[in-house]
Amino acid sequence: MSAVSRLTAALAVLALLAACGSEKSEPSPMGAAVGTLAKATLSRMSARRAGGEAKTPAAPSRAEIEKYGMPILRAVIPSRGADALVTISDRKGPVVTWSTTDGTTFSLRDGVLIQTRGLGPDLMSARAPSLGQLRQNGGTHQRVYYFLGADDRTTTRTYDCTVQVRGGESVTIFGRAHATTRVTEECVRPQGRITNEFWLEGATVRKSRQWVSGLTGYIDLERVVD
């Protein structure tokens, strides 16, 4: 099964479990929220295979998501048509791991992506900047990515990165506006370049676009509920 199929199946399974897991007679808010996103993803992928456009169901409301009563992160992988609400499966100090029910996980250190599992060729680990480094306009650092390839061999990519603090920017996530500071991290190596973006709200990475790998591309993350 392809990585795209696994992620799509994960959305459908997550929606089913969330809907069936409630002991109440009415559907759980999380079931409705995840179900909406799962249907949207499946609809988009079906339309893509058919060469057409899909009607995207309305996104769940913030009230529906907050009723779930726990931290929620939205993870979107544009290259794969994947769009999911994920919850915390593990926490070790500043490193928080978010996961779907099929075991696909994203590990973030203070909001900065350092590891994935379940995407096929995964980001095994990363030497990534701290939030302090991302706040230093003009600051430089090295970023190192370690990948597991299709042949199960680890490869390394090293980038020289420069931070640019772009200034204040308001972002709206599920109907709530957040006053953030936008930061870009421009990273280069002889074979190419990547750009990571972060929207910082105090000590929280409220929103980000971070590079995962050459096959996956970027992942968009939004911290919906703290």
TrEMBL record:
Organism name: Tabrizicola soli
UniProt KW Lipoprotein keyword: yes
Record key words, sorted: Lipoprotein, Signal
InterPro entries: GfcB, YmcC_sf
PROSITE patterns associated with the record: PROKAR_LIPOPROTEIN
Name recorded for this polypeptide: YjbF family lipoprotein
Signal sequence, start to end: 1-18
Pfam families in alphabetical order: YjbF
